[in-house]
Amino acid sequence: MLNLARPYTFPHLVDDARRAKVVYIICQLLHGNPAMIPTGWEGAFPVSPPVDFDSPLSAPDQERLQLHAATDFLGIVATGLDARIVQDLGIFYRGYEKPLFHATHSAAARIDTRHGGYQTLCQVVSSTYDFAGVDRSRLNPRVLASVGPDRDTQTEDPEKDGNSMPGVTRAYLSQLARARTCSGPNCTKTIYEEGRPFPVCSRCKTVRYCGPECQKRDWSSAQAPHRHKDICPLLRQLLAEANPTMTNEQWAKAFVHTLDIEAQWKLFEWAIDGPLFSEESKRRMKQFLQRMVSMVRRLCMSK
Fold it and tell me: Cα–Cα distances in Å, from 253 out to 78, 110, 155, 209, 249?
């Protein structure tokens, strides 16, 4: 139901009282043991009884099923249809970082790295180990290799730090592929209200519209922060060379080789202004973009 009707189900899921129960049970399943109090859990138990020794899922031979079910659920929270890829997972685990760190770290160390939810587990580990008071050096070696750079050693190089123009643009395109909302300026319509799929732009096959009026406004209106008239040809140019099956490294190379620097900046800013990021994150990334633009222009002037 979360994947099919997220705008209606997700707000109920992250209601504080319900969220505590769901997080508690997900932690038990990630540990592979519904008959345990999750490691790092503090305060009152949101479910009664807090452990269930008689549950069929408590049987040792059910551990793999528990692990995969919980991992699949987190994957849907993070990247399911209509997910705000950067925000929704954080909203789900906020306040429960410590038990979710221990649960996802344990699960990521045991699950097959080819499982579709492995990167989601590592994403939670990367975001929560500080809250759990755990030093990076204590992470499982294969998990450590997947959680990204140490925050204390990050540089001004976006390709090394992960906030790269190719990476952010790719994340936004992934968001658009899953979203079932209208891309028209200030339009809030969804397919749930209309009861029909929204057609995509016939040129770039990326953004969706509830109707021709929204499409016209997004194409050229001053109401649109980034006119699709300007963005569409850049997307067509990029997607003629890059595709979703590429590795991050392949995508980054295609992004840089296909687009000139001005086009890269334009798509990056377009992606930042989408619904992926919080206002604070948008502010920080725009500051980063401004520093990068200034640096490149100074280099050009010095030649």
Answer: 26, 32, 20, 31, 6
Hey, how many other C-beta atoms are within 10 angstroms of the C-beta on 131?
Answer: 16
Q: Looking only at Cα atoms, what is the longest distance across the chain?
A: 74
Cβ count near 138 (within 10 Å)? 9
**69-126 pLDDT, tens per residue?**
999 999 999 888 887 766 788 889 899 999 999 999 999 999 998 888 898 999 899 8
Query: Are 37 and 23 contacting, i.e. CB atoms less than 8 angstroms apart?
Result: no
Q: Which DSSP letter does residue 37 get?
A: P
Q: How far apart are CA 124 and CA 118, in angstroms?
A: 10
Q: Which residues contact 151 (CB under 8 A, 6 or more apart)?
A: 130
- pTM of the shown model: 0.64
Which segments of 195-303 does DSSP mark as H helices, in order? 212-220, 228-239, 248-258, 261-272, 279-302
Residues 6+ apart with CB under 8 A from 102: 27, 31, 38, 39, 40, 132
* Contact criterion met (CB below 8 Å) for 238 and 255: yes
- Going by the DSSP 8-state scheme, the letter that residue 2 receives in this structure is T
155 CB-side CA count, 13 A: 4
Q: Could you tell me if 64 and 33 are in contact, meaning their C-beta atoms sit under 8 angstroms apart?
A: no
CA-to-CA distance for 179 and 203, rounded, in angstroms?
18
**pLDDT tens digits, residue range 245-282?**
788 889 999 999 999 989 999 999 999 888 777 777 78
Other CB atoms within 10 Å distance of the CB of residue 300 = 9
Which one-letter amino acid corresponds to residue 89?
L
Q: Give the tokens for residue 117.
A: 């939810």
